[in-house]
Write a structure and sequence with these properties.
Elements (H helix, E strand, L loop, with lengths): L8 H16 L3 H4 L17 E6 L9 E7 L2 E6 L17 H4 L2 H4 L9 E3 L10 E3 L2 H19 L4 E3 L13 H9 L5 E3 L5 H11 L17 E5 L3 H4 L6 H12 L2 E5 L12 E4 L6 H14 L5 H7 E2 L17 H6 L10 H8 L3 H13 L3 E5 L9 H15 L33 E3 L3 H6 L23 E5 L11 H8 L7 E6 L11 E4 L8 E3 L9 E5 L12 H11 L3 H5 L5 H15 L6 H7 L1 E3 L10 H5 L13 E2 L3 H9 L29 E7 L12 H6 L4 E3 L1 H6 L7 E6 L2 E9 L7 E6 L39 E6 L1
Length: 803
């Protein structure tokens, strides 16, 4: 996703050219100020002090930073070392990324001054000149007024971002400003799990995408994982990856990990890797369902009591007599009239037929079995259907609602549910899918509720004309088809004004008309209820690690100044409240409902606060115990294997490509194995790299050395192309070309190439556009999925050659 990454000087100069780099650091030739190498006056030598704060990137954890600070600089970072650190007594221990972040915070490449796009420069060239804060704020306020008056409130947009998702502040300061001045177009969904959210909604009536937690696992249990590697993605001390490792040892778990890549989770003890062709998980699930149903292993008592649509008996009246049930689909008596046998699935998935049969038997014989999916399987062009197909497996087995059981969604988590900074009421109700922001700039007149998933309106009134991009890199780097995004953003007749506020010159920031230097979460007062911890309630009282430097400003202070210029200062600040006032108020409001937590003063002195583990979180436990008293939030109140709402969508929506069906089904999707050709014979997919979170920390050399960027290739594919381990290769398709080092390894299936997502885009956009930064989104497709209109960034075909 789209955090606050950084770029080293060598990469920056290569991507912009010497003149562009000179301008981008603030017009050094004109002002004599080098924004990357400028130094603050030396501080008087002082004693070392301890300052507590927390990580803020969107990795799925939120860990303690115990910063040793002296003379206005962090000397080193420790973390939580209280408690034993085992499964029952965890530590909010930062991973190597977090503990090495002082190089990121104190980098000479930080943005230090407000800037505007240089005279005569085009968006995307990265050429800027330094200006005063007054000029920057006056210009932004003037453009906000002009655009809102000319195009209406719906023309204003706050871009999707995740660089400040940890804590009570987030991007709400910008949202509050936009709301108080008329409202703005908003989005729904996420780049991370938008497909799974839709799958969950039409199955369980929930958009969270989370089932049971690992605390419910039992001794000697079987865990079946689809497209999941929490050991790589959630590495913090209380993250699901760390806790799965503890649970595996404590309970002697047997884990089966289904993935096209032998990920680090699958590489653990007592874990089996089942390689599968990318994008075909739903076909495997259909074959497993065939074995379960055909062998009489389906728990029909459970299915008849708790579910809708398993067979003719449980179908809603609108679907009866049409062979529309899930059982008909699987046995070949409905829909495509094709039995979903293991032999059928083996040709699609490349999983051996016998292994499919054995897996179905193992899942049937295991009681309980914990079936879970990560975000990898659903981040495809057929992701919503895949998510539902995985969820149906525990439904068939009746393995839901009791200890050791999951409902087929991602493992759950818990934390203190603190209220965030209040953004207020938005007068604009219209919402677009977060992935389709580019279409709302490029062709808003074509977008409707039936073809683009617009919510709470039939169509857009206006395209996006004013865009505020705060703490995010999804304008280009983290969005599909960077070359297409570039072409959309440089057209100033479309989106007329772009503001970017960040801590580094991200690739997305190159498209700013005004560029503002932000403070990080660690450089200002912060507060977080550690919401992503695995069943541990905790609070971290983040304090500024040192005084503000250069002309960097926090986003609340920036928006307060804009509020003055827009005539809403008193309303915005609620009578003059500072960031500290708001933070304390939010904490005291929360403490009024949770009197056991420390006072603000006590908490700040402690640095962080932890409560004992809560225990098991078992998905749908109350519903299974008494379905009439505790119905689900689906239309039927039951688990919907067949969804009447999806049937309506299938029959009414204008689907550009792909399909929607009311039952879990397999569809290859676009850019799948069916689209391979002599020109593009390889399936290209991203994965989350340990060395950075999305694109955050991507230039922090110490962690990049620990987990370098490589394009992972199977030896058979590499040998046929004359590629050896460590060679520079070019990976390309119709959308673009990247250069990256090759990693030749049997840890990926033949016919696949895996590239870590989040590497920094580095291309001459006025020339050949070859990306020397190795960013996979130079290659990914910008076409939304059918149901959720989400990012299909794991569905791509292409070719690899030695450079």
């Amino acid at each position: 996703m789209q955090d606050m990454p950084c770029m080293n000087r060598r990469t920056f100069v290569k991507s912009t050219g010497a003149l562009g780099a000179l301008a981008a650091v603030g017009g050094a030739a004109a002002t004599g100020a080098n924004l990357f190498n400028a130094t603050e006056p030396a501080h008087a030598e002082s004693e070392e002090k301890i300052v507590y704060t927390h990580c803020a990137v969107n990795c799925g954890c939120c860990c303690v930073w115990k910063c040793h600070v002296q003379d206005g600089e962090i000397k080193f970072i420790e973390s939580d070392n209280t408690g034993s650190g085992d499964f029952a007594d965890p530590q909010m221990r930062a991973c190597l990324r977090g503990r090495s972040a002082r190089r990121w915070l104190q980098s000479s490449e930080r943005l230090n001054y407000p800037m505007k796009r240089a005279e005569g420069a085009k968006r995307g060239e990265g050429k800027f000149e330094r200006i005063s804060w007054d000029e920057a704020l006056d210009t932004i306020a003037s453009e906000m007024k002009r655009i809102r008056e000319k195009y209406g409130d719906e023309s204003m947009y706050l871009q999707y971002a995740s660089g400040v998702t940890m804590g009570v502040w987030g991007s709400s300061p910008v949202g509050r400003l936009l709301n108080l001045t008329g409202g703005y177009l908003t989005y729904y969904g996420t780049y991370s799990n938008g497909q799974l959210m839709r799958s969950s909604f039409y199955t369980y009536g929930e958009t969270g995408g989370y089932g049971s937690n690992y605390q419910t696992l039992q001794d000697n249990e079987l865990v079946v994982m689809f497209g999941s590697s929490p050991v790589e993605t959630r590495m913090g001390g209380t993250g699901q990856g760390n806790n799965l490792v503890y649970a595996r040892e404590k309970h002697n778990l047997r884990i089966i990990n289904i993935d096209p890549r032998l990920n680090d989770t699958a590489a653990g003890d007592n874990t089996e890797w089942i390689p599968i062709r990318t994008g075909t998980d739903a076909a495997l699930c259909a074959a497993l369902s065939y074995e379960i149903i055909n062998n009489g292993w389906a728990d029909e008592e459970f299915l008849h009591k708790y579910c809708v649509g398993y067979d003719e008996e449980t179908l809603p009246e609108s679907a009866k007599g049409k062979n529309a049930s899930y059982k008909d689909y699987i046995l070949g008596t409905g829909y495509d009239m094709t039995p979903k046998t293991p032999a059928w699935a083996s040709k699609i998935t490349l999983v051996p037929e016998q292994r499919i049969k054995d897996l179905a038997r193992e899942m049937h014989e295991a009681n309980p079995v914990f079936i879970t999916q990560g975000y990898g399987s659903q981040r495809h062009s057929n992701g919503e259907a895949t998510g539902r197909a995985i969820m149906v497996l525990p439904q068939l087995l009746g393995q839901i609602g009791k200890p050791g059981m999951n409902d087929g969604r991602r493992e759950n988590k818990i934390g203190f549910a603190m209220s965030g900074f209040p953004a207020g009421k938005n007068a604009v109700s219209t919402q677009i899918p977060c992935f389709l922001w580019y279409k709302a700039i490029e062709a808003p007149e074509t977008m409707t509720n039936l073809n683009s998933g617009i919510m709470k309106a039939e169509k857009l009134k206006s395209g996006i004309k004013f865009l505020f991009n705060y703490a995010g890199n999804a304008l280009t780097n983290q969005h599909s088809d960077i070359n297409h995004s570039h072409d959309v953003l440089v057209d100033e007749s479309k989106c007329e004004f772009i503001v970017c506020c960040d801590v580094f010159m991200t690739d997305s920031c190159k498209y700013a008309d005004i560029l503002l230097p932000d403070l990080t979460s660690q450089e200002q007062l912060s507060l977080v209820g550690a919401p992503y911890n695995d069943n541990l309630k905790a609070i971290i009282y983040g304090q500024p690690v040192y005084e503000e430097k250069f002309e960097r400003r926090g986003i609340y202070e920036v928006c307060s100044e804009l509020a003055k210029r827009l005539g809403v200062y008193d309303e915005y600040t609620d009578g003059g409240k500072t960031r500290e006032d708001w933070t304390k108020k939010l904490y005291e409001d929360f403490r009024a409902k949770n009197p056991q937590i420390p006072t603000w003063e006590e908490g700040v002195k402690m640095g962080f606060y932890k409560e004992e583990r809560v225990g098991e979180l078992i998905a749908h436990q109350k519903f299974i115990a008494d379905p009439e008293a505790n119905p689900l939030k689906t239309p039927s109140g039951k688990i919907e294997i067949y969804s009447e709402d999806l049937a309506k969508i299938r029959d009414t929506w204008d689907l550009e490509e792909g399909t929607v069906e009311p039952i879990p089904f397999f569809d290859p999707g676009f850019e799948s194995y069916q689209d391979l050709s002599d020109e593009y014979p390889l399936l290209i997919q991203g994965f989350h790299c340990k060395a950075h979170t999305h694109s955050s920390y991507a230039n922090n050399q110490i962690v990049q050395d620990a987990a370098p960027h490589f394009a992972w290739m199977n030896p058979a594919d590499a040998e046929s192309r004359g590629i050896k381990d460590g060679d520079t290769v070019k990976v390309f398709n119709d959308r673009g070309e990247i250069r990256i080092l090759a990693k030749v390894t049997p840890r990926v299936m033949p016919g696949h190439v895996f590239i870590p997502q989040g590497s920094w885009h580095n291309a001459d956009m006025s020339g050949d556009r070859v990306d020397y930064g190795g960013c996979i989104n130079t290659l990914t497709i910008a076409k939304p999925t059918p149901l959720g209109k989400c990012n299909p960034q794991h569905s791509n075909v292409g070719q690899v050659e030695k450079a």
